[in-house]
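The authors assume throughout that readers already know how a fold can be written as discrete tokens. The format is easy to grasp once an entry is in front of the reader. For illustration, here is how one protein appears when written out as sequence plus structure tokens:
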Amino acid sequence: MENLDRFGFPGKVFPVATKKGKLGKRKILTSVNKIKETPDLAVILVPGRFVPETLIACAKKGIRHVIIESGGFTEFDEGSQGIR
């Protein structure tokens, strides 16, 4: 986020986290549903166990493109409800 500001990214960015606050100049929202418009892209930076529910929230919001940068998928095997 800091680099987006520093280098003058012209697009809209909506930080979402579990706790309210501020990230640089931007207000942190506590849910994807609180974004008033539909973003073009979501960048998901959560532990692997939260990725499925985060993807579902993005899909319900109409976000069609995502980048997932996450770890912790070793707990998902063929018999789990994980992403395949």
User: Anything to note?
Assistant: The chain is about 20% helix and 15% strand. The chain has a mean pLDDT of 86. The beta strands are 21-23, 26-28, 42-44, 66-68. The first helix runs from residue 2 to 6.
